[in-house]
Design goal:
Blueprint: E1 24-27, E2 31-36, H1 54-61, E3 66-67, E4 76-82, H2 85-97, E5 101-109, E6 116-120, E7 123-125, E8 133-135, E9 144-153, E10 156-163, H3 170-178, H4 191-195, E11 202-210, E12 216-220
Parallel strand pairs: 4-11
Antiparallel strand pairs: 1-2, 2-4, 3-4, 5-10, 5-11, 6-9, 7-8, 9-10, 11-12
Domain Pseudouridine synthase RsuA/RluA-like: 30-176
GO molecular function, one term: pseudouridine synthase activity
Organism: Pseudaminobacter salicylatoxidans
């Protein structure tokens, strides 16, 4: 699993996967649909050691490409990039207006007894534990996630998650609040739940939106776990 730790004054450790270097699921005149691997940043960070990212890799071949939305480094799955400014504005506006439809697959620790549910808990960055976030009823921004059970493993549950908002670490913090952290989550899991997977078991599987040319489209990225 790629790691990125920042001990006080320490050099960041970042070993993003190199194979596949870039996975393009769809390309047309306006958009690229990409499958980001776990462990790769969506965009470069400020530190020079964290320059490698999905965006910079794609821009080696498509210099005009601009990223429309992001995934956490440890989350895999669908990411859109535009190939012209008109397309970028058209799709970015849908993310801003929350008219896109997204679904993720996650494997969480423990058995989730209900078949489905809605988590409605406001989130804010944890000022004492950055970059982690937390439920914060006083200062948090509204955040909602629908979830549905897909199946069970040995003390684990496979879920489909539908984020209705797009807060940082939303799915990860909401699953923790549900009492079922995502396996392999280095920020919010510990003990057996952290050790149970060599990566964060969270994947952006499906994305639906209105293509800049006018048609409704849906893209899928196979779940790698």
């Amino acid at each position: 699993m790629a790691a990125m730790n920042s001990l006080s004054g320490a050099f960041p450790v970042y070993n993003p996967p190199l194979e596949p270097y870039v996975s393009i699921l769809h390309r047309d005149a306006d958009l690229l649909v990409l499958d980001k691997p776990s462990g790769l940043l969506s965009v470069p960070a400020r530190h020079p050691a964290l320059a490698d990212s999905l965006a910079t890799r794609v821009q080696e071949k498509f210099p005009q490409a601009l990223i429309i939305h992001r995934l956490d480094k440890d989350t895999s799955g669908l990411v859109l990039m535009s190939l012209n400014r008109k397309a970028h504005a058209a799709v970015a506006a849908q993310f801003e207006a929350r008219t896109t439809k997204k679904s993720y697959v996650a494997v969480v620790w423990g058995r989730v007894e209900d078949e489905e549910g809605l988590i409605d808990l406001p989130l804010a960055i944890d000022p004492d534990n950055k970059p982690r976030h937390r439920v914060d009823h006083d200062n948090g921004r509204p955040a909602q996630t629908r979830w549905r059970v897909l199946g069970y493993g040995e003390n684990t549950t496979r879920l489909r998650l539908f984020p209705l908002t797009g807060r940082t670490h939303q799915l990860r913090v909401h699953m923790k609040a549900l009492g079922h952290v995502i396996l392999g989550d280095e920020f919010y899991a510990d003990g057996a739940a952290l050790a149970a997977a060599d990566r964060l078991l969270l994947h952006a599987e499906e994305l639906s939106f209105r293509h800049p040319r006018g048609e409704d489209v849906t893209f899928n990225a196979p779940v790698p776990f």
